Amino acid sequence: MHITQLNRECLLHLFSFLDKNSRKNLAKTCHKLLEVFQDPLLWSLLNFHSPVELKKDNFLLGPALKYLSICWYSERVKVCNIEDWMKNSFQKDFCNRHENTVSDFLLDVCNRCPNLLSLTLSGCGHVTDDCILHVLKNCPNLKSLKLENCVRITDRTLEAVTLHGGSLRTLHVDFCRNVTQAGLERVRQKCPSVTLRADRSANMIPDSKPEKRLMLEKASRKLVQL
């Protein structure tokens, strides 16, 4: 029996066991398998392990996407998660090659995937507070937001959670060294139903300039007092 003789449900089940590259390669063999590849039901979960993967055409973004994970663990993570003012010219050039890759991808997610339930970002040095704000506004059903070692995440993201994370039930900001204890306390007060985890975040030595850090902490204390 040839694979193309299987019905649509069987083919979708078969494709679900394949990685993105294998799905794409199989889809190139005939029109029927291409239609299966393009079925939104196949793309409810996506995992990425390098910035390069975000630029490939071996996946589809659509309203069926529920679970998204973008995590890289490499030497590139160490460079990208250094504060800009601490980078030398070589490191800046290195990071500029993919500075907008993640933010552009997340913007596409906001536009195409309104039913997203879970977003995990780890080691993404270019993720900004604005990125997370757009996700929270455009994905109102988001229940789980896990951020790890995202150096640009600050108390602005925590504030966005209190304003736009109505469906959120899990928030992790582990190793996000530029959030403050005041910002975390604000989330605990405003969103008691959210399970908040912040391992090695606000207690770490931040990489921002000391004078800038002091200003951020003072502003955060004022917000909590309000």
TrEMBL record:
It comes from the Eukaryota. Keywords: Ubl conjugation pathway. InterPro entries: F-box-like_dom_sf, F-box_dom, F-box_LRR-repeat, Leu-rich_rpt_Cys-con_subtyp, LRR_dom_sf. Residues 9-46 form the F-box domain. Transmembrane segments: none annotated. One of its GO terms (cellular component) is cytoplasm. The keyword Cytoplasm does not apply. This is FXL22 protein. It comes from Oreocharis arfaki (tit berrypecker). The lineage of its organism: Eukaryota, Metazoa, Chordata, Craniata, Vertebrata. The gene is Fbxl22.
